[in-house]
Amino acid sequence: GDKETAEKKFKDISEAYEVLSDKQKRQIYDQFGEEGLKGGVPPGGGGAGGFPGGGFPGGGGTTFTFTSGGPGGGFGGFHPSNPEDIFEQLFGGGLGGLSSMGGGRGHGAQFMDVDGGMGGMGGFGFGGGNGTSVRSRRPQEITRPLACTLEELYNGCTKKLKVTRRIRDATGNINPSEKVLQVNVKPGWKAGTKIRFNKEGDDIGHGAQDIVFVIEEKPHPLFKRNGDDLKVNMTLTLDEALCGFKKPLQLLSGKSIFVSNSNSVVEPGQTSRMLNYGMPNSKNPGQKGTLIITYDVKFPTTLSLSQKEKIHEALSE
């Protein structure tokens, strides 16, 4: 069954590591091939005799055979120079990952995130030894959006986020663990700004993941951001556009200012620019962008005859 196949695979891999990590045994293999490991080393070959019993010492007679490729997943021209290569070849289309198995041959070799088949199981390791990693792959980071209002990005704020992560314990069970992460949003941060928390994500056997929060800007009902500049529309009546106005405008800081004009006629689409009233610069918060005000002039939909006469009289002078 699958269990027997997996157990045999582990046994074979373990013995391969034993042979290939032993300088003397590896020298025999490099010089005489697999026949040398079976006990067929010519007399005096490499200063070492063969292994009796047709196999590896303590290996129960199991022997690795490396053949050219073809259907069935052979190892075409396999000549490993170090123990890592054999596992790279073995797992190239094989194990997809299996939870850690204790009671192995005691080599302490750990292998994580091996791609491929055998039912798509997770990373795995052999018990015993000191758990030294032979080959591992950095786990993929977790990316999550962090939505902020324009006021929060203008003034800065602190956001506390409760994260539930999965952690594999010593018995192999995966348990949830909650933690609160704090993000200090700085004034002037833009959409796309990334905040990384190293090793605060899932840790299910192949290293803890990083969590990366990416700032997203919520739409604002009044202001629009363009870099460090802010844009806002202000609607004027025809009377205000022609005769002048003084109108309050509440800023993102919460303070209000008055925008006024009494010296000229304001045309539809005309703009005013107020320096240092825009968004803070994240690298230099004391420096702000420009507030750009665009005026919309609201024309009356109907006029009485009397109003028309008065306007005509005023504009004809």
TrEMBL record:
Q: Which UniProt keywords apply?
A: Chaperone
Tell me which GO cellular component terms the UniProt record holds.
cytosol
InterPro entries membership: DnaJ_C, DnaJ_domain, DnaJ_domain_CS, DnaJ_subfamily_B, HSP40/DnaJ_pept-bd, J_dom_sf
Concerning CDD domains, the annotation shows: DnaJ, DnaJ_C
Name the GO terms of the biological process aspect: protein folding; translational initiation
Pfam annotation, one family: DnaJ
Chain ranges of the J domain: 1-33
Decide whether keyword Metal-binding is in the record.
no
| Superkingdom of the organism of origin | Eukaryota
Q: Name one GO molecular function term.
A: unfolded protein binding
Could you tell me which PANTHER family the record lists for this protein?
DNAJ HOMOLOG SUBFAMILY B MEMBER 5, DNAJ HOMOLOG SUBFAMILY C MEMBER
Provide the protein name. Molecular chaperone (DnaJ super)
Q: Which organism is it from?
A: Coemansia brasiliensis
